[in-house]
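[Automated response] Your request has been received and processed.

Submitted sequence:
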Amino acid sequence: FGNRLFSISEHSASLWTTYEMQSGDLQGLGLGLGFNFVGEREGDLANTFELDSYFVTNAALSYKRDNWRVALNFRNLFDVDYILGSSNNRLRVDPGEGFTVIGSISVEF
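Generated structure:
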């Protein structure tokens, strides 16, 4: 049927789940864990090279009290090296994000 589109995986999957403590001393504490899988992809329109598959783990920790929430998000928890995509040639591929921590404070009103 011709060549496959570049940077588009035939197989991919993601899962994200969270849990927030509802009572007790830890009420308001939230935990999250997620996974992202992307299968092998073609690197260019001519299908002359392939980008490897990758599996990334992410996590989150949060605390909510009244209308305030403080959170830490951990991306690429195990600092996996991977290629996010290409620009239709071998000379320009986009590396995936390394281990990253993002903090946030939010208020609902």
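Summary generated for your ticket: DSSP finds no helices and nine strands in the chain. The two ends are 54 Å apart (CA to CA).
If you did not submit this request, please reply to this message.
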